[in-house]
Amino acid sequence: MRTFLFSIVLLFFISSVISTVPAHETPTTPATLPAKRTKGGHGRRRRNAAKFFGFVRVNRTMYLHSETELAKEFMHAHNWVRKEYKLPALEWSETLANFAKKYLQERYEDCKLVHSSANYGENMFWGKKLHWTPSDAVYYWYKEKDSFDFNTLKCAPPPKLCEHFTQIVWRDSSHVGCALQHCKNVGTGMLIACEYDPPGNFVNENPLVHTT
Ligand SMILES: *[C@@H]1O[C@H](CO)[C@@H](O)[C@H](O)[C@H]1NC(C)=O
């Protein structure tokens, strides 16, 4: 019997001033956090994730204007990571992307980092500021690799997280679809969701190894 780790903390939460790896789980709603500011809109320490992945945007905010560009950027980042682990590339799925988009629309008012009840794998990201990009989300998920031990298949103790990372490198996931949304009230931030099919994160299985 394979146990599907869906409802556990696949939550991700970062404060906009911190550009190094996270943060903590989310015991409160993001909206209740004090607003912090970075000079000039971007912290000097915020890593350029698109550059890290070698992704070149048409212009700085193109992913907000074109679904094709949004998909391209999510795909590029995911498949950069998959390649690192010699895994087959994920394919973009409009069905999954539409699911993510519809689900985020349900969160438009409250902007809460809560999972949907889909039968997909699901990675979510919340940011206080509105400048977070597809590459940023995937970058922070990818960095969870530092907390994952491939020998024991265990994650470092909380508040460390690994499930976003293990979902990205789940060998048997073949399709991904994502959405990005600025929530209704600017102060409550933005959300990003990616759906994966078939889902990953089955307990005690090696993400990189095909399961029959
Ligand atoms: C980027 O391109 C889009 C679509 O052409 C345009 O709407 C937007 O204003 C541009 N943004 C910048 C920062 O140039």
UniProtKB/TrEMBL annotation:
It comes from Vicia faba. This is SCP domain-containing protein. It comes from the Eukaryota. Residues 69-204 form the SCP domain. The keyword Ligase does not apply. InterPro entries: Allrgn_V5/Tpx1_CS, CAP_dom, CAP_sf, CRISP-related. PROSITE patterns: CRISP_1. The lineage of its organism: Eukaryota, Viridiplantae, Streptophyta, Embryophyta, Tracheophyta. Residues 24-43 are annotated as: Disordered. Keywords: Signal. GO terms for cellular component: extracellular region. Residues 1-19 form the signal peptide.
